[in-house]
Model the fold of this input.
Amino acid sequence: MSRHLKVASAQLGPLHLADTRTSATARLVKLLREAHAMGARFVVFPELAFTTFFPRYWYADDTEVDQRFFEFTMPSAETQPLFDEARKLGMGFYIGYAERVVEQGRVRRFNTAILVRPDGTIAGRYRKIHLPGHSEHRPQAPFQHLEKKYFEVGNLGFRVWRYMDTITGMLICNDRRWPEAYRVLALQGAEIVALGFNTPSENLAFPEPPALRVHHHLITAQAMAYQNATWLIETAKCGFEDGYRMFGHSLIVAPTGEIAAKSVSEEDEVICFNADIDLAADLKRNTFNFAAHRRPEHYRLIVERTGAEVTPSDEP
Ligand code: CDT
Done:
C-alpha cells in the first residue's frame, strides 16, 4: 500500500514593519487551523515568517535589528501559541525565522528553518546556505537586499530527517535556484523538500519583467522536483509589505514535475494536496536511479570550482 501524507502550503500575505510577532503568530495559527480543516497533517510556512522581510532595510545598529527581527529562542512566549496549536491538532510544520544564537561564545545570526513534529518537538534545523543580495548600504537603490549583511552562511549543511513516515529535507528561498542543493538532499533519499520564500517582484540587479520572475520560480520548482524525484512544497510570504511587492505562487509540486496545487492570491492562503509519497518510486528505480546512472567522476568541477572560468579544451 502506498504512503500518503496530506500536505499544505500556508502562504502569508504582507507583514508590515508595524506588525508584531504576536499578530503574525495569530495569523499563522489561523492558517494552521484552516489547513487542519482541509485534512492536512504537514504544513509549510514561509521564510522569515514572523516579521516583515527586513533585509530590504538598512539598519546600522545590530541591537535594534536583534530586538526587532531576530528570535533569541524558538519557541518564545510570542511564538509559543503556534507550537501549542500544532500539538493540539497533531500537525507537523516547517517555519522560517531569523535565528540569533551564541555558539562558542560568539553571537551568530542565521536565516533558519525548523521542522517541528506533531508532538511539538523540533526534528530538524536548517540554516540558509545561499544568501543572495549584498552587504553594503546602497542608498540609491529602491530597496536593499541585505541578507549578506544580516546573516552568516548556514553551518549545518543540507540534511534530511525521518519525519512523519517520510524522508524530508529543508531549503530556504534562494536555495531553490541552485540544483546542487536539491541533489545533495536527493542523494540522502529526500522524498519531500520543504521551502519557504520571500521573492521581491522587482529585480534589484537588472530590469526584468515580474512575469519572468514568476516563470523562473515555476520552471525551477518543476525541474527540481522531477530531476530529484521528490515532492516539493514552496511557500511564499507575499504582497505589498509597506509598499514593497513580493510575488505569491506558492506551490505543491509532484515528483513527476507536475504542479499539484498553486496559490492564486498575494494574501494569507492555504493550498493542500494528498501527496502519494511513493509516486516517485518508478522514477527512483529507473530514470533517476542514481546508483545506476550517475557519473560523479565526471562531476568533479562541481565541488572543485566555485565561479565559472573559461577553460576550453585543446583537444578536438
Ligand atoms: N529571500 C530570498 O532569498 N530572495 C531571493 C531574491 C533574489 S532576487 C533573484 C530569491 O532568490 O527569491
About this structure: The chain has one domain: 4-279. The radius of gyration is 19 Å. The chain has nine helices and 14 strands.
